[in-house]
Amino acid sequence: MSMDNMKHSERTIRIADNVLQKVAAISAKDVSGVAGLAEDCPVNIINLGGAISAEIFIFVKNDTRAAAVALRVQQAVKQCIQDMTGVTAVNVHVNICGIRE
């Protein structure tokens, strides 16, 4: 399990990838139009040495515009990771796995 390092003054905070995965998953599920996350591997985190790249796999609701939902997920995940952990998400790739009711 790799960890992101953040330096604040003279301290280093380490945040495990699985924590970042959970933060991303929670923020994505809260976006209007998201029906759920992929079950086998919903979120991948790539450590970029002080920043991260996230890849998230979602299902959208059948009465929504998939592109608009994906954009809202990108924004929500970036903001939530930054707000809750202080780690910068430089990329959030959203993969739409399908449509659910």
CATH superfamily, called what?
Cation efflux protein, cytoplasmic domain
Could you give the order of the helices and strands? EEHEEEHE
CATH architectural type: 2-Layer Sandwich
The CATH class is identified as Alpha Beta
Structural class: alpha+beta
Q: What is the CA-based Rg, rounded?
A: 14 Å
CATH topology, what is it called?
Alpha-Beta Plaits
Q: What is the distance, rounded to the nearest whole angstrom, between the alpha carbons of the first and last residues?
A: 35 Å
Low-confidence stretches: none
How many distinct helices? 2
What is the tally of beta strands? 6
Overall mean confidence score, pLDDT: 91
Helix and strand arrangement:
Blueprint: E1 3-8, E2 11-16, H1 17-29, E3 34-37, E4 43-47, E5 51-61, H2 66-85, E6 88-100
Parallel strand pairs: 5-6
Antiparallel strand pairs: 1-2, 3-5, 4-5
Any overview of this molecule?
The protein is α+β, with helices and mostly antiparallel strands and 101 residues long. It has one domain: Cation efflux protein, cytoplasmic domain (Alpha-Beta Plaits), CATH 3.30.70.1350. It is 33% helix and 45% strand. The protein contains 2 helices and 6 strands; from the N terminus they run ββαβββαβ. The protein has helices spanning 17-29, 66-85; strands at residues 3-8, 11-16, 34-37, 43-47, 51-61, 88-100. Strands 3, 4, 5 and 6 form a 4-stranded mixed sheet that branches. The protein has a two-stranded antiparallel sheet with strand order 1-2. A hairpin with a 2-residue loop joins strand 1 and strand 2. Helix 1 (17-29) packs across helix 2 (66-85). The termini are far apart. 27% of the residues are buried. The model has no long low-confidence stretch (mean pLDDT 91).
